[in-house]
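Put briefly, the fold is written as integer tokens. The lines below illustrate.
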Amino acid sequence: MALGRERRAVAEVDEVAAVDAPAITEAAGQLVQLFGGLHGKAPRRRAAAVREQPYRDFLEAIGVAVYTTDAAGRITFFNEAAAAFWGRRPELGEEWCGSLRLFWSDGRAMRHDECPMAIALRENRPVRGYEAIAERPDGGRVSFVPYPTPLCDESGALIGALNVLVDVTQRKRAEEALRASAEALQVSNAVKDEFLGLVSHELRTPVTTIFGNARLLRERGDQLGDAQRHSMIVDIAEDSDRLLAIVENLLLLTKLASGSPVESEPQVLAHVVRQSVASFQRRHLGRAIKLTVEPRHLIVETDRTYLELLLENLLSNAMKYSPASSETEVVVHREGNEARVLVLDRGIGLGGIDPERLFTAFFRTEEAKRYTSGIGVGLAVCRRMLDAQGGRIWAKPRDGGGSEFGFALPLADPTDGPIERPLRD
């Protein structure tokens, strides 16, 4: 949509330029005759002077910056639009142009005696096809296209020049915005293609396992041994769980990116963590999890579903990148006015990278890619969930190897709550 808006903006400027160009050309021709007559013989000067005021009125009325010079390049006339364009009122007799400073369109400084007006006077020809930048006394800059045209008397002798300055600043901004939008769209398309390829691959693996095992169980289940059937059912359950996690994370990532509000309510953090860990433990019977909870109620304002998915992502992350024989620790405690949850593992660690990169969507370290598959959205979802609830998340290496992933939420009531019996599982 942004790209369409910028295209319309450029089109509108082009339309204006197309309308103005014939009028500028016609006005230039009329003004050549006027100022040529004014600088001719005395009788003609007197006759031309009678016609001077209407043309001056015309120059003021057109609303386009116009000025004239004599043959030496000294300013002889400028209208109010030119004064507004320059941001100043030059003295009659100043040379070449009323701009404080001039620059080429690429930003290089331009001397006034090499500007298009100077070229038109030096070479006695209209100069077209140039674009420049004028700097005003207040430091502001304006992009413009000049239309300098020599003025000659009846004998063809050069008597001065007229210049029309067309402000194209908005056009330049629209073009730059259009280029930026086009580049952003190109990058977005590349990211989209990479994302679709990545997701397709990650979805295909569990779907293939689920489909294959389900088909075998349906067609040959009665011919399979109990151990084989149990193994296939376990595979279906694990890959279904993996598939569900991918879909839930992608849906939540999209929801959070859209700015949907979080429906928070008071939660006893220890209760939610305890139930989430127990649920995770039932689905990963071969993995050891140690839970330590501070002996008091810590109340936080949060969306319970978000909190459960947050814990699920951190626990899954710890399990995926740790040896099966290692223990994962979960610690709930208070620090200041925050309730904190730490998930500690003895896995592959952070690999020496900036921990903040881990919370970027679709980012995975090279070590993580070698260790197991994934699409890299879980931690990004965690960050966005916590940002939406006024919380924070971090990652850091753990002494002795492994990683610490932790998050914090503001306490709903910073005063101490009732004592609760410590839980150690």
